[in-house]
Amino acid sequence: MPLFDLPLDQLRSYRPESGEPDDFDAFWRRTLEEASAHPLDAEFTAYDAALSNVDAHDVSFAGWGGHRIRAWLNVPAGAEGPLPTVVHYLGYGGGRGLPHDHLVWPAAGWATLLVDTRGQGAVNNNSPGSTPDPHGGGNPQSPGFMTRGILDPDEYYYRRVFTDAVRAVEVARTHPAVDPDRIVVHGGSQGGGIAQAVAGLSPHVKAALIDVPFLTHYRRAVEITDRDPYQEIVRFLSAQHGVCEQVFRTLSYFDGISFAARATVPALYSVALMDTVCPPSTVFAAYNHWAGPKEIEVYPWNNHEGGGSAHRGAQLRMLRDLG
User: Fold this and answer.
1) Which residues partner with 296 through β-bridges?
2) Residues contacting residue 132 through CB under 8 Å, at least 6 positions apart
3) Domain 8-134+159-217+256-318 - what CATH class?
4) Which one of 18, 60, 189, 258 is the catalytic residue?
5) pTM for the whole structure
């Protein structure tokens, strides 16, 4: 794939207006207050993962609407806590898999809460999910998750997902192995978009690791890439005429640019200049709005895989330095 977006020197200064609605903060304050009416009711059950150096726990808790959300908590065996902890969110379509799939952060001495994404994880045998989404959203939709409830911000799918993700941070803080003041959120693609949102919404995040984030600068994304998942929105609009402004109004409550502008903790981003799934201008749009200390690793020759293992090394060094 050749370079298709803005040149790097322009990307570094690309800072479009967010276009957020006037009631953005009120919307999210109301959403999280509604969620808080449901006790977290977190359950941590020891799980035999046959791992000598990691203690695994099968986790469930009450997310948006009181719906049960599943997760894994992996803790370095024998570690004297409380430990710094990574709360990890998943890429599009993936599920939580099994504890042995998530060992990098425990190997570095960090506990890890790996959070399932409601409704996802049914198409990949390597990362099955176990969290349904009981709330469907009423409008017609393009296959996938991007257009579920897209005509109404209150009904939109990612309202539930982002709320679950904020609640996951609160759940992590309740476990005795976790240091509640040293929680880092992490994810790539969809997971990066979720981590970006949580960093802007939760007061309990110490830092963020955000890789090639999805769910950011929607209008530009759908106009310059022909790749899914953004193309789900295009297909929806091609069939549902006359609802374009309604759709983008809904999406304005969920745009990573607005969450980044509210995030004040240190962040390490990654971007790939040949990324046709999450175009680099959409990543830089959020990064350039990030309100806290920040760095971005640029991978000029990569597509949506970003920096891969090389970038994981950069993240591990950042965590080591955070302590």
Assistant:
1) 269
2) 67, 118, 119
3) alpha beta
4) 189
5) 0.97
The residue annotated as part of the active site, out of 275, 281, 289, 311, is 275
pLDDT at 138 over 70: no
Q: Which residues contact 17 (CB under 8 A, 6 or more apart)?
A: none
Terminal alpha carbon distance of the chain: 39
Active site residue 226: no
For the four alpha carbons of 99, 120, 38 and 20, in that order, the dihedral sign comes to positive
Dump pLDDT digits (tens) for 55-91.
999 999 999 999 999 999 999 999 988 999 999 999 9
Active site residue 304: yes
Residue 263, number of CB atoms within 10 A of its CB: 28
What would the mean pLDDT of 131-137 be, rounded to a whole number?
81
Q: Is 258 an annotated catalytic residue?
A: no
The residue assigned the tokens 């330095």 is: 321
Locate the domains of the chain by residue range. Answer: 8-134+159-217+256-318
C-alpha count within 13 angstroms, C-beta hemisphere, residue 167? 33
User: What is the CA angle 104-105-107, rounded to 5?
Assistant: 65
Q: Which residues contact 225 (CB under 8 A, 6 or more apart)?
A: 231, 276, 277, 279
Give the Cα separation of 61 and 263 in Å (integer).
25
**Active-site hit among 88, 175, 186, 304:** 304
> What is the H or E stretch that residue 122 is in?
none
Helices (DSSP H) in 73-156: which residue ranges?
104-107
